[in-house]
Design a protein that fits this description.
There is one protein chain. This protein is an alpha/beta fold and 604 residues long. The chain is built from 7 helices and 32 strands. The strands form 7 sheets. Strands 21-22-23-24-25-27-29-30 form an 8-stranded parallel barrel, surrounded by 4 helices. A 7-stranded antiparallel beta sheet has the order 11-12-15-14-13-16-17, with no helix packed on it. A 6-stranded antiparallel beta sheet has the order 3-2-4-9-6-7, with no helix packed on it. The longest helix is centred in the N-terminal third of the chain and has 23 residues. About 2% of the residues have low confidence. Bound molecules: alpha-D-glucopyranuronic acid (GCU). The site of alpha-D-glucopyranuronic acid (GCU) has 9 residues, from loops.
C-alpha cells in the first residue's frame, strides 16, 4: 500500500515537475536595495530558525517551500520544519553544529512571525547577507532570489503577507562554482547561511529608497546630493534636507531622471577625519516618508603620488582584516564584533583598515565612521576568475553596485577596490575596466583601487609595478611577500621599487606566518621572531619608497582557511595574523604599532 502512495507521489512530481519548478522558482530578482534600513521601522527576524539540510537538492521537487506537514492523509510529505533543529540567525551554519562544520551545499531555513499589515504601506524582507545563493518564499509564495554572499538584498513582500501568522522559508546554497564571485578557491573559510540580520521593513507606498549626501571635492564646504523616491510617482516630488545641528535646510527638486537633486552651503561644517570623526544627523523629508542618518563630511582625492584627505596629505596606517570575530569561531556580525576588531586596529595605531576581500557587515563600516578609521572596501573578484564569462561579470557588477549602494554615505570609506591579485590578461583588464567604469558612474566622489601582485622583476631585488590596470586606477595596491613566499627578510634591504605611473601606492599586503607562542631563531619560519624579523625589514624598506602613501599588512588576526592544514602550526588557520584567533598579540604586533605611532607623531 505504502509503495503505491509513494509512486503516485513520484509520478505526480515528475509530471508536474515543470509546473512545480515554475511555481517553485522565485518569480523575480530582489527589489532595488533600500538604503539605511537601520533608520527605518523594522521587525527583526533574527533568532532561531528551523533548518533542513538538503545535500542532494531535493527540496524543490519535494516542495519544502510549501511548509508541509507529514501527517496529511493525501499528500505524501517527508519533511517537517517544525520538528527540525534550529540555527541562530544571523550566523553561519558551520560553527553552530559540529556536523555542519565542513558542509557546503543547500540548506533550508524556516521561521514564522506575526505581522499586521498597515494600510498605504509596502513591506520588504531585508537580508544583510546570505552566502551564497538564496531563494525566498513567504506563505508558500516565491518572493525573490539573490546571488552573492556579502551584500544585502530586499524582496517585496507586500502582497504575500497576511494578517497574523506568516511563514518565511529561505533556501541557501553555498556550493562554490568556477564562474561565481568569488570563484573556487578563496583563501578563506566558506561560511554558509544567513550570516547577517534579517528584517521586515515597512515603508509608505511612496518612499525614499536611495540617496547620496556628500561634500563636493576641492574643499568648498559645499554639500550636494540626490534622493530617489520609489513607488507611484504621481504623489509628492519634493523633499527637504535638514542638518539641524548646523541650522541648515534646503529643498530638493526633481530632475529629468526622476531624481531629486539638492545643494547646500555649509560654511561652519566640521570635516570628518580619523582624528575627529565628526558625524551630523541628516534628516530627509519627502511628504509621506522621513529618514535620518548620521553622516560625516570629508573630501578624498589624489594629487600626483599623494593622497589628500580634506585637502591635506595623508599616509594610510592600515591593517587588513577578514570578517571573523576574536575568541569565537564563525563569521563576525553586528556592532560588538566590529568594535572589537576595529578597536584592535586602533590599538595598533591605525587610521585605515582594508576590509578583505568582500564587503563586511554594515555595522563594520558604520563603526569605522564613528571610531574614525578610513576604509578600503572590496568586491571578491579574487585571483582566478572566469574573466571571459559575461555572467561572471554581471555577478561582479551586481555585488559592486550593492556594495556602493549600501555604503555610499559612509565618510569612512575612501576606496572602492574592484579585485585582488587577478592574473594579467586582456580579458582580465577588460573585465576590471568595466567594473571601474561602473564604480565611477555610481560614485564619482571616491577613489578607485585594486590590489595587484603582478609586478615585473627584471632582476631579483628590482620590483617594477607596471600592471596595465594601474592606468585606470586612482590609487594602486601592491601585495608582496618578500621574506615569506619570496626570499628572506634581508632581501628587502636591497630591494628597489619603481613604477611608470605617477600615482599613490599602498602596500596592501605583506607579512609572514607565526604560531603564537612558538619561539626560536629569527631564521626559523613559523616563529614569532621570524615574523617580527619580516616586519622590521619590510618597514625599513617601505620607508624608502617615495610614492608609498599607505600600508595594510596581511593581517590583523589569524583566520580560518581550508588551504592551511599544516599540523600543529596552522591547523586550518592562516597564521599571518598579528594576533592569534584568541586575541593574543604576537611580537610583530608591537613592531607595526611602534612604526604607526612614530608616523602619527610626525603628522602635523
Ligand atoms: C594573498 C591573498 C590573501 C591570502 C594571502 C596569503 O595575497 O590576497 O587572500 O590569504 O595572500 O597567502 O596568506
Amino acid at each position: 500500500m505504502k509503495h503505491i502512495a509513494y509512486f503516485t507521489w513520484v509520478l505526480t512530481s515528475i509530471f508536474c515537475g515543470a509546473f512545480v519548478f515554475a511555481s517553485s522558482s522565485p518569480a523575480q530578482s530582489p527589489s532595488p536595495l533600500i538604503q539605511n534600513v537601520a533608520g527605518r521601522k523594522t521587525i527583526s527576524l533574527n533568532g532561531d530558525w528551523h533548518y533542513l539540510v538538503d545535500p542532494h537538492e531535493e527540496g524543490i521537487a519535494r516542495r519544502y517551500y510549501l511548509n508541509g506537514k507529514p501527517f496529511g492523509r493525501r499528500d505524501f510529505v517527508e519533511y517537517d520544519f517544525n520538528t527540525a533543529p534550529t540555527l541562530r540567525v544571523p550566523g553561519d551554519w558551520n560553527f553552530q553544529r559540529p556536523e555542519l562544520q565542513w558542509y557546503e551545499g543547500l540548506l533550508w531555513y524556516q521561521r514564522s512571525f506575526d505581522y499586521h499589515p498597515q494600510a498605504n504601506t509596502r513591506t520588504f524582507l531585508y537580508f544583510g547577507a546570505a552566502n551564497y545563493r538564496a531563494r525566498v518564499w513567504l506563505n508558500e509564495k516565491p518572493l525573490c532570489e539573490h546571488e552573492g554572499g556579502f551584500t544585502p538584498f530586499n524582496c517585496e513582500a507586500t502582497s504575500a503577507l497576511q494578517e497574523g501568522a506568516n511563514v518565511v522559508i529561505v533556501s541557501v546554497n553555498d556550493t562554490r562554482h568556477a564562474d561565481d564571485i568569488p570563484s573556487l578557491r578563496p583563501d578563506w573559510f566558506n561560511y554558509g547561511g544567513l550570516t547577517r540580520d534579517v528584517l521586515v521593513v515597512q515603508v509608505p507606498r511612496r518612499f525614499i529608497d536611495q540617496y547620496s549626501v556628500q561634500l563636493d571635492r576641492g574643499g568648498s564646504h559645499h554639500i550636494t546630493g540626490w534622493i530617489r523616491l520609489a513607488g507611484d510617482s504621481n504623489e509628492s516630488q519634493k523633499a527637504t534636507i535638514r542638518i539641524p545641528e548646523l541650522k541648515l535646510s534646503t529643498e530638493a527638486a526633481v530632475d529629468k531622471d526622476g531624481l531629486l537633486r539638492f545643494s547646500l552651503d555649509a560654511p561652519n561644517l566640521e570635516l570628518w577625519s580619523p582624528e575627529k570623526p565628526k558625524l551630523y544627523r541628516v534628516e530627509i523629508n519627502a511628504a509621506v516618508d522621513q529618514v535620518s542618518e548620521e553622516i560625516g563630511f570629508r573630501t578624498i582625492e589624489t594629487r600626483g603620488t599623494d593622497i589628500l584627505l580634506n585637502g591635506k596629505s595623508t599616509f594610510l596606517r592600515g591593517i587588513d582584516m577578514h570578517e571573523e570575530p576574536v575568541g569565537r569561531s564563525g563569521r563576525a556580525h553586528g556592532e560588538n564584533d566590529a568594535r572589537t576588531l576595529l578597536g584592535w586596529a586602533k590599538e595598533l595605531g591605525c587610521n585605515f583598515v582594508r576590509l578583505a576581500h568582500y564587503p563586511h557587515d554594515e555595522s563594520m563600516v558604520r563603526t569605522a565612521d564613528r571610531l574614525g578609521l578610513m576604509v578600503w572596501s572590496e568586491v571578491p573578484v579574487y585571483q582566478g576568475v572566469d574573466f571571459k564569462n559575461p555572467q561572471t561579470l554581471a555577478r561582479a557588477t551586481q555585488q559592486l553596485t550593492e556594495m556602493i549602494t549600501r555604503d555610499r554615505n559612509r565618510a569612512a570609506i575612501i576606496l572602492w577596490s574592484v579585485s585582488n591579485e587577478t592574473p594579467k590578461s586582456s580579458e582580465r583588464n577588460a573585465f576590471l575596466q568595466q567594473l571601474i567604469k561602473t564604480a565611477r558612474t555610481l560614485d564619482p566622489t571616491r577613489l578607485i583601487t585594486t590590489a595587484t601582485n603582478q609586478t615585473n622583476s627584471t632582476e631579483p631585488q628590482k620590483k617594477i609595478f607596471d600592471d596595465p590596470i594601474i592606468a585606470d586606477l586612482d590609487v594602486f595596491g601592491v601585495n608582496e611577500y618578500i621574506g615569506w613566499y619570496e626570499g628572506v627578510p634581508a632581501d628587502l634591504d636591497v630591494t628597489t621599487w619603481a613604477t611608470p605611473y605617477e600615482k599613490p601606492m599602498i602596500v596592501s599586503e605583506f607579512g609572514g606566518e607565526a604560531k603564537y607562542g612558538l619561539h626560536g631563531p629569527v631564521t626559523q619560519r613559523w616563529t614569532e621572531e621570524n615574523q617580527e624579523e619580516i616586519y622590521q625589514h619590510q618597514i625599513a624598506a617601505l620607508r624608502k619608497i617615495p610614492f608609498l602613501r599607505g600600508t595594510s599588512p596581511w593581517i590583523l588576526k589569524d583566520f580560518r582557511s581550508p588551504h592551511r592544514q599544516l599540523p600543529r602550526l596552522q591547523d586550518g588557520f592562516n597564521r599571518k595574523g598579528l594576533i592569534s584567533e584568541y586575541g593574543e598579540r604576537k611580537k610583530a604586533f608591537y613592531v607595526l604599532q611602534k612604526f604607526y605611532r612614530e608616523l602619527a607623531a610626525q603628522t602635523p
